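Task 17 of the worksheet. Students: predict the tertiary structure of the chain below and write it out as structure tokens. Keep your answer in the requested format; marks are given for formatting as well as content.
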Amino acid sequence: MIGLISAPRARPYWRLLGLFALSFLGSMVLFRGLFVYRLAQAQVVQLATNLSQTISLSELALESYPPQAVSRLSGFRILVGFPQALSPPAGSGAISSWATSSVDGSLNRQVQDLRRLLCLRLDHCPQLVAVNDPARGAWIRLVSPLDQVWMFTPMPLPALVSTDPLVLSLSLMSGAAIAVALFLWFEIQRPMAKLEKAMAKVGTDASSAAFAHPLLPQQGLAAVQRLVVHFSAMLERLAANERERQTFLAGIAHDLRSPITRLRLRIALFETQGQVTSLQAEGLGKLHGDLDALERMTQQFLLVVGSGSRESRIEVPLDALLFEQTAAYEPASLELDVEPLMALVQPVAMGRAVTNLLDNAMTYGRPPFRLELKPLDGDRFRITVIDSGDGIAPEAIGRALEPFHRLDPARGGDGHCGLGLTIVQRIAISHGGYLEFGRRSTPGGEGFGVSLIGQLNAEDPQLD
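Model answer:
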């Protein structure tokens, strides 16, 4: 059974900030991947601008200072004499650029772009070699009175967090949009969907168990949590009212059985004490009829209370179950059209529903009577009881399903208090189905039929 949940927790706007931070970083990584070539190009342009001045000053300084001093002044690594392992391939020319075998294609393209930009900014085109050792970068040959002087410039991959204005702007906008969407989903849409699912299942098995519900999670904004609190309180009240109603009905039915039994015993004792006149016999017969009516009504009260019970479901042959329920009826008065069919049902409840349908048809309808069992598409079955009477008008079907309601006095009988179809409807709902009313064609003509449609493998209703 449910319980009231605690008061709503603090407003979860801190989640919005966290979602925005994660979305912003994710968007930046995404756009960095999309614009990686543009970022690499921007990096090369910036590097070419800085290197053009450094190369010019270093070449000028090499005329007066040793390479070690120039290296300290410029902050770049300078090497006299290029290593043999990085010698250019044959026929490469004096102003070419090349890459070692361990260099990836992206670095080679960056070095070629860097050489092109340096050629535009310098009065000569330097020779460049792309390498991955000692770091990812390029060796640049400087113009020097010495034999060969090379300067190394690192060219690292673009940073994970870009400072490019376009990437930052797009990441900011997309991060904000994604964060708001996720916030609405987690704090409003998801808890409201759970609440909607729980509300849709309230009353699905027409018993007090329909109002039982596990504790709804305390999620979402404060307004959503307050709505969950009120919903839980409503279920608590409905469950209490349903328990009270069933206890009241069960108590009345149970208490009536004792005086009915005592009256039958006293009548039997009176009949055995001596001669009974015809007038007394007529009165005793009416008393027996009244007691039978009271007993039938008592039984119907108990059936209403127990129609939503937690009877275990077992797989049974429905055709055999129907044959068993109709064994007490005269074969000549009831025609059977039953197909073999296995179903997971509550056998006692299903037998009770079939019996009520047959009793209603034989009480209010006209012969011949017919009982059908047919499989339906979608893993369903249909049990139909057909009689040759006028049936129920379409506008009166809703009232006929109401408890303790009889359409008119002509449709009433001794011991009938308007609970037969109510019991059948509850059993149909508990088996994942419903009742259907309408005219039916039979081999002998046409009649009015009441159909119980259910699922072949209906499980106990649960409110997950």
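Marker's comment: The longest strand covers residues 445-455. DSSP finds eleven helices and twelve strands in the chain.
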